[in-house]
């Protein structure tokens, strides 16, 4: 993987430990414009990696460059924080604020001190996540999905050049997920973690897959799916020799592994590629 | 409606009333029939809609106007700061006044003992992980870290200091004359304790525990002085706090702790693990 000076995000050999646990180990990745997906099971290190990219956690080792700046230097770190937006996995918003107050508060923390500008910007981001109708309601009265959109609006204040989103579709219904896709596709650079593989295929130009703190795959969604080329077949019965075998909604079995002779090979999906990687990881 | 030679045309006020939904139902129905056949009135009606939207826009501008300046929004308007201010008001104002009402000059003792703990509580709350209204989002903003902690601590001090002067003025006026030194004697020891808690925030120590420890140490010191002097009169505490040696020591602690904190500010810039 080559890292260029024009990359919005460039990570080399990044590592983070918590006590004796290696949460992130020797991670190298880069991203220019577009949406970059980070896939992996729970505990793979995605959240720790995103926290380091968002400058919330300091890495133990490795080199991190964001927007061409080095977050280890205090002056650069402040400049980076002016230009990024961050949505944590559990935003933990104060329930006594209204949606408007909360986003306005984050705008202040981002050093937007002009009241008229803040007013326009807060309304703009709340309208962009379709929350104009509830902007003056207390957060405690909002549903989980709506709170998630408030946090997303807060992350988007000031049109950041880099958005770091930890499972942004958490709590959103299918319609809201579609709107989120539309919103993110208009953003400059987005690094997002997700469990939802369909989001990756719909949104991401590049995908990284993490297991046990390490990047195990990097490439396009099509390349991830292609890992399972020739290794997916379907028939009417369960196959005990397959790595994975599951019943589909159509009532037929889909198998992943080394196909028997004469098997009806089908085109792999992103799920197939991911499941194959996961299986190899746990061997 | 006015009657012209060839046709009726709606007047401006009537169109405005119709657009605003204030027209009488019978008149509104009649006007709608007229509008179907009168391009002139339809054209004029269309000009009212943007006005209405502008009016709504103006109303929204008022409703959505940020009600607080950036300073208030980032400090006093946050729950943690309200808690810190409430604690400061309790320690510096309410408790001494209540004690004075119940036991005369013991109120001054209460003020001198409790007031130094107000800035300690303010700093501990400013550091507290769960105190920010936007949770972890705030850590990825440019003001995160020492800037925000210090700003909030200063805001609490700005509330607590004048309040303590008011309490002492009231004490002087209604209970017993006390030396002016008592008014400011607690400030430097209080700041020294708070500065130590702020410094603790740059280490692996939990500032909350350090605040509790500092408060306990302060209580032990007061208890020791009282035991040695065999008196809990205000003069005993004023003597303790207002002596040049104690003030100089407190000042040196403040300076050293602040310098060390600034030198180690990078540690506050990240999430506490």
The helical percent of chain B reads over 70%
Helix/strand-derived category of chain B reads: mainly alpha
Q: What proportion strand of chain B?
A: under 5%
The CATH topology annotation of the largest domain in chain A reads as Rossmann fold
In the residues of chain A, how many domains can be counted?
Answer: 2
Element order, helices and strands of chain A?
EEEHEHEHHHEHEHEEHEEEH
Q: What is Rg of chain A? A: 21 Å
Number of helices of chain B: 14
Largest sheet of chain A: 6 strands, mixed
Percentage beta strand of chain A? 25-35%
What's the total number of strands of chain A?
12
Q: What's the average pLDDT of chain A?
A: 91
**CA radius of gyration of chain B:** 32 Å
H/E element order of chain B: EEHHHHHHHHHHHHHH
Average predicted confidence as pLDDT of chain B = 78
Distance between the termini of chain B: 75 Å
The residue fraction in helices of chain A comes out at 25-40%
Strand order of the largest sheet of chain B: 1-2
Low-confidence stretches of chain A are none
Compute the separation of the termini of chain A in Å. 26 Å
Give the topology.
The complex is a heterodimer of chains A (about 280) and B (about 270).
Chain A (H helix, E strand, L loop, with lengths): L8 E10 L2 E11 L2 E6 L6 H8 L7 E6 L7 H10 E4 L11 H11 L5 H14 L15 H13 L5 E5 L7 H12 L3 E5 L3 H7 L2 E6 L2 E6 L1 H6 L5 E4 L8 E4 L5 E4 L13 H13 L1
Chain B lengths: L1 E2 L4 E2 L2 H8 L5 H13 L1 H8 L1 H17 L5 H5 L4 H25 L2 H9 L2 H11 L18 H29 L6 H5 L1 H14 L6 H23 L4 H9 L1 H20 L10
Antiparallel strand pairs in B: 1-2
């Amino acid at each position: 993987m080559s890292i260029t000076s024009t990359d919005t995000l460039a990570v080399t050999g990044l590592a983070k430990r918590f006590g004796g646990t290696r949460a992130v180990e020797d991670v190298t990745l880069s991203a220019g414009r577009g949406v970059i997906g980070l896939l992996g099971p729970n505990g793979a290190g995605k959240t720790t990696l995103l926290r380091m990219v968002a400058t919330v956690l300091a890495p133990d080792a490795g080199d991190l460059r964001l927007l061409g700046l080095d977050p280890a230097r205090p002056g650069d770190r402040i400049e980076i924080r002016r230009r990024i937006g961050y949505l944590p996995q559990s935003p933990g918003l104060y329930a006594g604020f209204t949606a408007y107050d909360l986003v306005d508060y984050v705008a202040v923390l981002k050093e937007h001190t002009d009241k008229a500008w803040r007013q326009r910007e807060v309304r703009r981001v709340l309208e962009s996540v379709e929350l104009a109708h509830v902007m003056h309601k207390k957060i405690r009265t909002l549903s989980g999905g709506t709170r998630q959109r408030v946090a997303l609006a807060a992350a988007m204040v000031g049109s950041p050049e880099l958005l770091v989103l930890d499972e942004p579709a958490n709590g959103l219904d299918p319609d809201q997920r579609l709107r989120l896709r539309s919103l993110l596709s208009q953003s400059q650079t987005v690094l997002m973690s997700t469990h939802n593989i369909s989001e990756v295929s719909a949104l991401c130009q590049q995908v990284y897959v993490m297991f046990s703190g390490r990047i195990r795959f990097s490439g396009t969604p099509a390349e991830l799916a292609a890992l399972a080329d020739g290794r997916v077949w379907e028939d009417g019965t369960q196959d005990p020799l397959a790595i994975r075998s599951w019943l589909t909604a159509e009532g037929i079995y889909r198998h992943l592994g080394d196909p028997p002779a004469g098997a009806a090979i089908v085109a792999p999906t992103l799920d197939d590629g991911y499941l194959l990687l996961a299986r190899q990881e746990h061997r | 409606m006015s009657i012209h030679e060839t046709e009726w045309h709606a007047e401006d006020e009537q169109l405005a009333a119709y657009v605003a939904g204030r027209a009488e139902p019978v008149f509104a129905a009649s006007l709608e029939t007229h509008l179907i056949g009168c391009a002139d009135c339809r054209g004029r009606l269309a000009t009212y809609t943007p006005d209405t939207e502008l009016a709504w826009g103006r109303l929204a501008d008022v409703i959505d106007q940020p009600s607080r300046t950036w300073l208030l929004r980032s400090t006093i308007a946050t729950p943690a700061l309200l808690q810190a201010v409430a604690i400061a008001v309790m320690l510096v104002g309410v408790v001494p006044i209540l004690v004075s009402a119940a036991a005369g000059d013991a109120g001054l003792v209460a003020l001198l003992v409790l007031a130094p703990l107000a800035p300690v509580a303010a700093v501990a709350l400013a550091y507290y992980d769960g105190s920010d209204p936007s949770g972890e989002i705030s850590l990825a903003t440019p003001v995160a870290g020492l800037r925000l902690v210090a700003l909030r601590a200063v805001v609490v001090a700005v509330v607590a200091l004048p309040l303590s002067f008011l309490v002492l003025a009231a004490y002087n006026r209604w209970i017993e004359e006390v030396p002016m030194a008592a008014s400011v004697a607690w400030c430097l020891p209080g700041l020294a304790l708070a500065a130590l808690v702020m410094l603790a925030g740059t280490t692996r120590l939990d500032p909350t525990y350090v605040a509790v420890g500092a408060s306990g140490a302060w209580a032990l010191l007061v208890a020791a002085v009282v035991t040695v002097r065999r008196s809990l009169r205000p003069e005993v505490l004023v003597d303790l706090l207002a002596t040049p040696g104690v003030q100089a020591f407190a000042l040196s602690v403040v300076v050293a702790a602040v310098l060390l904190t600034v030198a180690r500010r990078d540690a506050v810039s990240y999430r506490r693990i």
